[in-house]
Amino acid sequence: MLTKTRQLSVEEDVSSSTSRQKQDISSTNSGSVVAQAKAIDINSSALYQDSQSTSDPQSLSNAGNVGGPGVGIRQTVIRESPKPVPPAMKLSNIPVPDREAAKLQKFGQLLSGPMTDLEELRKISWSGIPPSVRSTTWKILLGYLPSNIDRRSLTLERKRAEYFSFIDQYYETRHEPIHRDTYRQIHIDIPRTNPLMPLFHQPEVHEIFERILYIWAIRHPASGYVQGMNDLVTPFFVVFLSEFVDDTAEAIDNYNVKKLEEEKLSFIEADSFWCMSKLLDGIQDNYTFAQPGIQLKVNALRELVQRVDASLHGHFGRHNVEYLQFAFRWMNNLLMREIPLKCTIRLWDTYMVSIFFSFYLCFGPLIQSSHWCVQ
Question: Rounded to two decimals, what is the model's pTM?
Answer without folding.
Answer: 0.70
